[in-house]
Amino acid sequence: MFVIHASGVAFLRERHPERQKGYNVTMPSLSADQVSSQEIADRLKKVREKMEQAGFSAYISFNPDNIYYLTNFANFVHERPFVLVVTASALTFIIPRLERAHVERHRVGDELTLVEYAEFPARAGTRWSDRLLDLLPAQGTVGIEGACPAYLSALVSNPTQILNVIDTVREIKSPHEIARIAWTSDVMTHALAMMLGAVKNGTLVAQAIGNVTPYFYQRCLAEAPNYNVMSTHAAGLIQPPAYTDDPHNFSCLTAPCEPGGPFLGLVAGKINGYGAEIERTFFLEHCPEDARRPFDTMMEMRHKAYAMLRPGAIGSEIDAACQEIARKAGYDVPLHRTGHSFGVTSHEAPFLAVGEDNVLQPGMVFSIEPGIYLKGIAGFRHSDTVLVTEAGYEILTRYPDERNDLTLS
């Protein structure tokens, strides 16, 4: 049986009414349903509109995430290439013969045509590159996404232009995608609550996180009839205090949980095709006195990000405002940006970063995760998955974030 931590799951909005400006009352619907043919057609229409604007006669996609977005096919891609070619009148998927049955089982969309090649490596005339050249128009500019390897670009004799067309379409999520991300967020929020509920004095990190992956599978098997393990890469992890100044170092599975903190609890990745994350800085039995000020500064940065989060806001300005709070408090410039986006991946554009002057639009989904890191001492960071709405924003990972709620007994 899975035990949910008593303080979690329900967002305690009634305790913080001053922070709910712009915060929608109704959560988006949750869904683990498979994408429909109409949804794929709508995405393809948007891609073709951007191709036309750019003057492309064809567009080549090599990125497995973009291929999944337009076909519903997910796979661990090794040396055998999968290449998607989009034109005004066709959507063609070049695949190894080995994978044809696999693709047929998962493909969605009325327009997709499969073209197979023999193997990799293969003899001239039967290679994937031969099939690609057969499909390209004799004239016109061919668009190529930035993730395409140089050896693919070198094959194309047409004029080429690197432009991330599909990635740009992915930035604004459809209602179907929002429901899928909301479902993933719900799974991850419950997993975090379960994980923190297992933290006691003396508990090993490995023991506290042990039920997270089984819980992912339990939810998928119960609620996602078309669950695809190939499109699931997620984990629940905990950092003891000595590791929290190093945000991506989770090499401490045998460390015991001891009173004090800060600890960092994280559940992140993608489940059944869509990404999300939730993170909480927490304490065990008590919060050390020297942890209070950096925690409070992190929370001030977090509140500032939410106060600015709305359609029309500029991503770089949100990040700059958070950095300024850290500087005024006497801390170094944060190690990382305020946020990144989610979709068919767990990290994607656009970003809340000083280097990107993107304009926020309804349907974008961001992490809000400004952090304070004191080298050799400790780090402090919460993260939530947040939808930009017409009215402001909606937090999809609802879990307590105040110090008192996150001081575990």
UniProtKB/TrEMBL annotation:
Positions of the Peptidase M24 domain: 246-390
KW Protease (keyword) present: yes
Pfam families named among the record's database cross-references: Creatinase_N, Peptidase_M24
Boundaries of every Creatinase N-terminal domain copy: 43-172
Keyword tags: Aminopeptidase, Hydrolase, Protease
MF-aspect GO terms: aminopeptidase activity
SUPFAM superfamilies: Creatinase/aminopeptidase, Creatinase/prolidase N-terminal domain
Protein name: Aminopeptidase
Originating species: Acetobacter persici
